[in-house]
Amino acid sequence: DLSMRRRDPNAMVIADNDPTDKPTFQSRFGQPFTALRKETLDWLAARELVVLPFWSGPNELQYGSILVCPRNAAFFAGMLADLQGFIPAQEVPDDFTVTGAIVYVAPPFRHTHFDGKQIVVHNRTPDYQEVFSYNLYPGPSAKKGIYSTLIDKGEKEGWVTNHCSAVQVETPYDNIVTFMHEGASGGGKSEMLENIHRQSDGRLLLGVQI
Q: How far apart are CA 200 and CA 13, in angstroms?
């Protein structure tokens, strides 16, 4: 089902009053996010939960973050662990503080509140960013949501977040070349990390003359 596997256009809305060039929750839905935020937290509080600590961005930045999702959506936690890298319980620092993001996952709200559309609500606070994921596909929240968090951090702290993939190649002559592919979603970044597709006999097909 493509509607499950891809990100809906315009999934992001902003709940806070900080400057933004993205649509706000108020302008799109005609009311503040406050009531729905409380309803979401109340819904989560009534469920068995998976709580997963992770770092937003590289570990050395120490942007402590947390995922909160229903136990029956635990595969979302598995996907986020693959995308961002979770912190094993024995390695969580005693002074662990949330300075990156808290991602709340409430999948049924997609159908009860948003006509089946994937919606991710960003609520920036002075200390961290809340990301409310009203869907199960991790792209707009576990991936792009954290990317948004890092963009916001970098803007405030004076560094740039790259939307890219990177690969390091060692040639037969022991030269090492590092490639970084910066680009939009769907631009082929992940494909750059794949093994080269070969013919059945191992040869590389460079082109076909038509």
A: 47
State pTM to two decimals: 0.83
Query: Average model confidence (pLDDT) for the chain?
Result: 90
Q: Which two tokens stand for residue 161?
A: 């977040």
Q: What is the DSSP letter of 90?
A: G
Is residue 65 a contact partner of residue 28, using CB atoms and an 8 Å limit? no
| Cα 73 to Cα 136: distance, rounded to the nearest angstrom | 8
Residue 134's nearest CA partner among 150, 117, 151 is: 117
Residue 200's CB is within 10 A of a number of other CB atoms, namely 5
Kindly report the length of the chain. Answer: 210
Query: CA 148 to CA 187: how far, in whole Å?
Result: 18
Summarised one tens digit per residue, pLDDT across range 93-120 is: 999 999 999 999 999 999 999 999 999 9
pLDDT tens string 146-172: 999 999 999 999 998 888 888 888 999
* The token pair that represents 172 in the structure block: 């037969």
Q: Which two tokens stand for residue 17?
A: 């009053």
Report d(CA 35, CA 15) in Å as an integer: 11
Q: Are strands 119-124 and 12-14 parallel, antiparallel or unpaired?
A: parallel
CA distances from 51 to 44, 66, 79, 80, 114 (A): 11, 7, 13, 12, 25
Cβ atoms within 10 Å, residue 37: 17
